[in-house]
Write a structure and sequence with these properties.
single chain; alpha+beta; 7-stranded antiparallel β-sheet; Secreted protein
Length: 301
């Protein structure tokens, strides 16, 4: 009897450990698994980006469904009614650069070499959607990436940075339309953040098109370039902040409905005074408004 009790006790301990492990694993619901699968598939289809769903999680914040990397702080998110009556849905997510060896040491070792086109590192992406919206009006997928823009004789640690997003109309009834979406970035600063200096940014001015066109954006510094191509429709308004290096926004405005998508993007280049990591705050929002009271009797598009 004592042996049986010992075996039973051991089994109970083992079961307890297994149960504890299962609880600590933070299980993902079936709905969230489907959201993550759709997120990675969409990133691949739109941008050719391979993301692992194991690196991402689904968070519900202030009524907004945000899919973001697990290794970033909890994003900020909001749904806001704008003065013109449209609704704004979006989130704010951190993205930190890789750190590097001191530039002077690299130059002394001959490890800072000339390059013509900087290589973008693996992007970090996130998506936003209205979690409580029964009409399923829209969503937005946004990515950002770093590129080291090194060249012989550089006195700062130079980076290229790009932010690009796609907002998509998903309302099956076509009673709403998207009328704007934007992406914004700015440096998250504290006493340990490296001071930045503008090198370049693109696009330089407003884009106004009668249709949709692939637009290449390229920044350059020290003979090194870094670029990105986006499909721009209607109007794209870039808004750099000259006195805040690294701070920039791009706003698309127009009409998108019946499953249409619109892209926004910008590329920037800046130099850092140290090799400390740079943390950027990226924001992405889409805006929608009513364009029809009844399906089939609409003024959408």
């Amino acid at each position: 009897m004592k042996k049986i009790s010992a075996v039973a006790a051991a089994a109970a301990i083992g079961l307890s450990l297994l149960t504890g492990s299962a609880q600590a694993a933070d299980p993902v619901s079936t709905a969230d698994q489907l959201s993550l699968q759709n997120f990675t598939q969409t990133a691949k289809a739109r941008y050719g980006v391979d993301l692992s769903s194991a690196d991402y999680r689904v968070s519900k914040i202030e009524g907004v469904r945000v899919i973001h990397r697990k290794d970033v702080p909890t994003p900020e998110a909001s749904i806001t009614k704008m003065p013109n009556g449209s609704m704004r849905v979006g989130a704010k997510v951190q993205h930190t650069s890789p750190t590097g060896t001191d530039v002077g040491k690299l130059a002394a070792l001959g490890e800072v070499t000339a390059q013509q086109e900087a290589q973008w590192r693996q992007p970090s992406c996130f998506s936003v959607g209205d979690e409580d919206d029964p009409a399923n009006i829209g969503d937005m997928l946004t990515c950002s990436a770093w590129a080291r823009m090194s060249y012989p004789g550089e006195t700062r640690y130079n980076w290229g940075y790009k932010v690009y997003g796609t907002c998509t109309h998903t309302n099956n009834l076509n009673t709403y339309e998207l009328d704007a979406c934007d992406v914004t970035t700015q440096q998250w600063g504290d006493t340990n953040s490296p001071r930045l200096h503008w090198n370049d940014w693109q696009p330089k001015g407003k884009i106004d098109l009668p249709n949709c066109q692939d637009k290449p954006f390229s920044v350059g510094w020290g003979g090194v370039t870094a670029g990105h191509t986006a499909k721009i429709c209607e109007k794209l308004n870039p808004v750099p902040t000259p006195d805040q290096p690294g701070s920039m926004a791009a706003l698309w405005s127009g009409d998108a409905w019946d499953g249409e998508s619109r892209e926004v993007a910008f590329v920037e280049a800046f130099g850092a005074e140290s090799t400390l990591a740079i943390t950027m705050y990226n924001e992405a929002y889409y805006y929608y408004s009513t364009c029809s009271l009844l399906p089939g009797f609409d003024q959408c598009g």
